[in-house]
Amino acid sequence: CAICQCLTDLDCLVTTACSHCFCRQCLPVWLDKMNRTTCPTCNRDLLYSKNNDINNSCMMMGSRSVMVQPLENAQPLSHRLLKTILVKCPLHKGVACQWTGDYGDLQTHLLSSTAHETDNLTTEDSKLRTESSAPQEKGDMRQTKQKHLSLAASLKEEANGQFGTQHYQEANSLYTKAISVLRQYELEKTEEEGQDEAIDLLSTLYSNRAATYLELQDYSHCLDDCNHILQRLGTENVKVYVRASRASIQLGNLEMAKTFVENGLQQKQTNLVLQKEERRLQQMMQWVDVGNRQLKNQQNAHAKATFSNLLKEAPAAISFLLGAAQADVGLGLTDSALRLTKRVLTQHAQNAKGCWIRGQALFLMGDSNVGIQLLQEALRLDPDSQEIKESFKTAKKVKECIETTQKKMFSRQFAEAVDTLTFGIEQYQPLPTKSSLYATLYTQRAQAYLRLKKYKETLRDCALVLYAQEDHIPAHLIRFQAYHGLNDHETALSEVKDIRQKFPQEEQLRKAYEQADFLLRKQRRIDFYKLL
Questions:
Q1: How many angstroms separate the CA atoms of 251 and 240, rounded?
Q2: What was the pLDDT predicted at 16?
């Protein structure tokens, strides 16, 4: 790499315009943070917009599109050659490892359970140890422990290097191997030489592995490692409390995060990072209280904004995702609610609130059968929830009203159809104006009013739908028919012209325009028979 002067990583990047390789973490710094757009080696312009060669692939770095690709994709042969470079084990200084092999096999060697073994003994060595004196055996044990400590420290340094280059999964694996080397000393309660050093190193390894879990968004394991340190190893490192707090926040458990921060501040009251975490937690807990209050008072737009702020701080928190989804359902934004609940149910399929909110969203979209099934599943998971019970009963009643209305319209019982739809609308309150269910109920009632020749009521229901959903074509068509029923063909023609400009490909609007134009010309035609 021309920037850091080190051997590039296996996931390195290559400029597709001039074929120069750079580390994945070095090139973005050069291009973005230093505000440059040229190749560090040859100064060739890498901005995609200034190059006409359409064969050069590009990728985004910061806010700019540059002609750069992973070496593995852009030049597979070069990548294979990179993997065959002969390298030594990076632990050769710490544990005198003599391994030499291909660059592509290095990570496999480092994680191998048979590599760097320090306690393998032959049969003859075992016999000698059995026959040796107790002092000599203790000396051998101390020597073995020192070898284990040296190996774990070397693995830790290598893992720190991987973490610094943002290879978090590789760093995690190396920390795990280092922990396995020292885990046997965790349960020892002796005061012999090297015991405290082993415990301190174990504490550091668990803490560093928790940091990798945090970067990998594996918050449960991060919290497990932090709790393991605090409960079994003990530490004065405040980073453990910070990482535990951040993992708890991402899991949506603000009370637990607050406990970690308070415990950390008891050890170091002047720590600026913990103080910042405390202020952040106070703000988030305030947002949670405000958001829940807004949901309770049906202030869905404000609740959406509040939970959006919380999701910026903790994008994976289940409670925040469900709060935002519930606000979306209240606003009738069913697509957004489905996306949010999918993220929840993918991880926690048995989440009752997730099933409840998703069931409501599907029902509001018009998928009544699946919506009711999900509401029933939510009720099975949480049979004591009054909210879920009410939603399930309401959904069944409204579905029954829609099915009954279709039968009434087919048998020309239009007045009964109006009464049934009015009952259904009254049952589902508040009914989100942006939802498909809202448009369906009011449009069907407008159709029934039209068949009863109650044109003013028809126009009123159509206006309610179109005020919330301007692109609802069936409501426009029924509205045009109501104008024709009132002999106001001119208004119908004027409005259908405006709508056709927005939806020029809509065939039904074309037919409505032709009908309005014909009726208006017919109305303006002189009736000679009447004159005679």
A1: 17
A2: 79
Three-state DSSP state, 96: coil
Hey, what are 29's tokens? 């710094």
Cβ atoms of 180 and 205 within 8 Å: the answer is no
CA-to-CA distance for 277 and 245, rounded, in angstroms? Answer: 8
159-195 as b/e, with b when 16 or more CB fall inside 10 Å? beebbebebbebbbbbbebbbebbeebeeeeeeeebe
As a whole number, the mean pLDDT across the chain is: 86
Strand ranges (E), 412-508: none
Taking the C-alpha atoms of residue 65 and residue 217, their distance in angstroms, rounded to an integer, is: 27
Alpha-carbon gap, residue 21 to 517, rounded angstroms: 68
CB crowding 499-532: b at 16 or more within 10 Å, else e: beeeeeebeebeebbebbeebbeeeeeeeeeeee
Number of residues assigned to the chain = 532
Three-state DSSP state, 13? strand
Q: Which residues does residue 64 pair with via DSSP β-bridges, in sequence order?
A: 61
Cβ atoms within 10 Å of 315's Cβ, excluding its own: 12
The neighbour count for residue 358, using CB atoms within 10 Å, is 28
CA dist., res. 281 & res. 174, Å (int): 33
> What is the 8-class DSSP label of residue 47?
B
What average pLDDT does range 390-395 have in this prediction? 94
Question: Closest by alpha carbon to 460, among 435, 478, 484, 485?
Answer: 478
Tell me whether residue 207 is exposed, middle or buried, using C-beta atoms within 10 angstroms of its C-beta: 0 to 12, 13 to 18, 19 or more. buried
CA distance 251 to 11: 31
Helix (H) or strand (E) holding 87: strand 86-88
Interstrand relation of 86-88 and 100-102 (parallel, antiparallel or unpaired)? antiparallel
pLDDT at 330: 93
Amino acid at 438: Y
Residue 92: name the closest of 13, 5, 187, 157 by CA.
157
**Diameter of the chain by CA atoms?**
138
Nearest to 360 by CA among 386, 383, 385, 338: 338
SS3 letters across 15-38:
ECCCCCEECCCHHHHHHHHCCCCE
Give pLDDT tens digits for 240-252. 999 999 999 999 8
**Rg, Å, the chain Cα set:** 35
Q: Using a pLDDT cut of 90, give the percent of the chain over it.
A: 52
Sign of the torsion angle spanned by Cα atoms 179, 183, 189, 194: negative
Q: Which residue has the tokens 């294979």?
A: 80
Q: How far is CA 279 from the centre of its chain?
A: 25
Tokens of 201: 């190193």
CA–CA separation, 30 and 34 (whole Å) = 5
Nearest-angstrom CA–CA distance, 207 and 429? 51
> CA 434 to CA 238: how far, in whole Å?
49
User: What's the rounded Cα separation, in Å, for the pair 261 and 529?
Assistant: 93
Instruction: Give the mean model confidence (pLDDT) for residues 488-514.
Output: 91
- Tell me how far apart the alpha carbons of residues 364 and 298 are, in angstroms, rounded to a whole number: 17
